[in-house]
Structure formats: C-alpha cells, structure tokens
Amino acid sequence: MAKANVTRYQPIAMIERFIAFDTTSRNSNLPLIHFVQDYLSQFGIKSDVITDKSGQKANLLARIGPADKPGIVLSGHTDTVPVEDQNWSTDPFKLIKNGGRLYGRGTSDMKSFLAICTALAPEFAEAKLSAPVYLAMSYDEELGCLGVPSMIAKLAELPVKPAACIVGEPSEMQVLMAHKGVNVFETTITGREAHSSQTDQGASAIAAAAELISFLNRLADEMRERGDPTKVFERDGYTSINVGLIQGGTALNIIPRTCKFVWEYRHLPGTDGKEIITRFRQFSETEILPKLKAKADDAAIETTTVIHYEGLRPEPGSFAEALALKCSGMARPTTAAFGTEAGLFQDVGIPTVVCGPGSIAQAHRPDEFIEKTQVEQCTQFLRRLIQELAPA
After folding, report:
1. Shared-domain flag, residues 70 and 153
2. Of the candidates 12, 19, 270, 323, which lies 20 to 30 Å from 369 by C-alpha distance?
3. 3-state DSSP call for residue 378?
C-alpha cells in the first residue's frame, strides 16, 4: 500500500535523480541504493541490501509480487566509469535535456534502465502479478562483475528459482541472445637494467614485452580467421584480443628492467575460454623467459588474472528469449561483442537475455547520451511485461 503524499517520478525525472549520484566505481554507491530502497518502501515494496566486506558498496534486491511463483529478474549495475581525462561539454552528473537526447554519465550505460524500472515499480506493485518481478541492482560491474555474484547467490537460494532474467545493458532495445566472455590480464616482465650501449649486459623487459605482444597479435589473426564455428554471431564473429595499456622503462639510455602491460580477450560463448591464456603462458615460459634468464638469473614473467567471466550462451526458444521478444516486438534476437553479467545468471540455471535502452556506442564516452525514444521504448517494454504477468 502506497503511503499518502508520495511523489511519483516519471521515467525521465527518475533518470535525472540517478544521474545526480556519482557512482563511479571508486566511490560508494550506498547513497543511490538507499534512495531506491526508500522510494520503493513508500509503495510497500521491501528490498534487501547486500553489502560488500567494506560496507561501502551494496547490491539491492527487491521483489514485487508473489514469492511462490517463478519470477522475472530485471538486472543492472549502478556503477559507472570515470569522467576524468574526458572532454565533457556539460556537467556529467547533471542530466542535460537537449532536443531528443538526454546527456549525462550513465544515461546509456546503464542507469536509465534501472531508473525506468524504479519509476515503474509502483505500477508493478499495483498490478495483480501472477509471478514476481525482481529488481536486481549491483555494484562494480565495470570492475569485472564483482558485486552481482552475491546477489545471484541469494536468488539461487529462493524456494522458487526465477524463470528468466533480463539484463538491461544498452542494446537499443534489441534482444541479445548471446555475447562474448571477458578475460583481462596484467603481465609484468622483469629483466636487468644496463647502459643502453651495452645491450649484451642487460635484459630488456620492453623488448620481451614486444615479443609477447607480437605473439598476441598473431593469435588475434588466427582467431579472426577461425571465426565463429556456431555461426551464431552476425557481427564480430570471432574471439578478439586487445592490448590496452603498457608502461616500462626509466630513460632512453637505460635498458629497461621492468615493463607491464594489460591485455584482454573476449571469447565466443561455447569455445574454450582458457585456450589463449594457456598458449600465452606456454610461449612466455618456453620462448621468452629463457632468453631473459640467460642474462638475468632473477628475470621473471608474471601474468595475473584481473577479470574473468563467461559470455552468454545462446538458448534458442528459452522462456527469457520468448518473453523479451514478445515485450519488445522483435521478430528474432541478435548478438553483441560486449560483456555483461548475463552469463553469471545463466550459470545458475536462470535463462537470460540482454535487452536495454541506449547504445553501447555511447558507453564510456564523454558527452554520453541516450535518445528519448529509447526511454519510451523501454517504458513500453516494461509495461508490456506487466500485461504479461497481470493479464486482464
């Protein structure tokens, strides 16, 4: 039962509230979580807040509807990427309405989806739902889906497991049935410094890194040629490899002792997600490290895993796919190259698809925006979901 004198937010107004919270991953997301919890409570919607060990980050899990039926999870992350070193034209934490666009950090990735879900929560609560809807808001997705596992664990423990999950990452309201897995590594090379004129006395960590990166480039070419054996992906149908960061050396006239680079690969679902790292480690240990140790006994190559999560495997005809297609009006699903938490829900037996407002092309960019038409489409999608769960 809603309390008296409650202010209901329309979707765009709620997006404005969400954008105002600076939930860059380095910050606490608790102010936003508590705002949502308080807002939902005004309509009789109870929610659990699941904090991390520090107590500074939290997931929010709310149920609307009966507990004894298999429900639908609407999942998304509350954190955003930083705005530093980006040339924003406006305040990134103030929603700017300009023509048919809404500007602000997180408008596409992915606060708009969560804000629309929150704005429509009273409509879900007032409908006589035949099955529950779970609002699942997580922390630190941008750091590697760190928060969502503890929330998924709670869902997996329910007496009645959810029947489907819809992850609202920006897909322009297209239904995505599959996406790639994400694997991020940091490789640190230790060699031996020497004067740059005495190359036989030093072991260059940068030269070793160059050979390792060249090996990754050859693997990337191989993966592109191998393509997608399942033929599911219409675009980007191959496992991709990218080296994104590198640093090393002290001065031009010093053979560098250390070099570090951060790299990733995004593997196709259903393929061996460990093949590339296995081959990389083998090449490092058998081809590059012996050459370093010939000049430096304490030489080393260490590769640590920073992020790993599996992709979303296609489940043609699943309940999640059928439901999302019906609510979106799409004839068939498609695929994407970016990663989400969808595969984690799938791994505990919850059929999952991705469908959310906004474009991935706007994610992580300065002057990030979402089209108002996308907000309208997502609102219509969720209202069709209400109709599916509460038929007249």
Report:
1. yes
2. 323
3. helix
Reported as type and span, the H/E element at residue 386 is helix 372-389
Q: Tokens standing for 313?
A: 């495997």
Please report the pLDDT score of residue 229 as a whole number. 85
Q: Confirm whether 236 is domain-assigned.
A: yes
Q: What is the pTM of this model?
A: 0.91
Nearest to 48 by CA among 66, 57, 61: 61
Classify each residue of 357-379 as buried b or exposed e, where b means 16 or more C-beta atoms within 10 Å of its C-beta: bbbbebbbeebbbbbbebbebbb
**Same domain, residue pair 33 and 138:** yes
Per-residue pLDDT tens over the stretch 290-320: 999 999 999 999 999 999 988 999 999 999 9
* Same-domain status, 21 and 121: yes
Would you say the C-alpha torsion 213, 218, 223, 224 has a positive or negative sign? Answer: positive
Do 277 and 303 meet the contact criterion of CB atoms below 8 Å apart? yes
Tens of pLDDT, residue by residue over 184-217, are: 999 999 999 999 999 999 999 999 999 999 999 9
Residue 98 belongs to domain spanning: 11-179+311-389
Distance of CA 294 to the CA centre of its chain: 43
- Map residue 149 onto helix, strand or coil: helix
Q: How far apart are CA 359 and CA 87, in angstroms?
A: 20
In the block, tokens 């495997």 appear at 313
- Whether 6 is in a domain gets the answer no
105 occurs within a structural domain: yes
At which of 274, 309, 344 does a domain end? 309
Burial of 332 (0-12, 13-18, 19+ CB in 10 A): exposed
User: CB under 8 Å to 293, separation ≥6 — which residues?
Assistant: 299
Please state the φ and ψ torsions of residue 148, each to the nearest 5 degrees.
-65, -30
Q: How far apart are CA 163 and CA 76, in angstroms?
A: 17
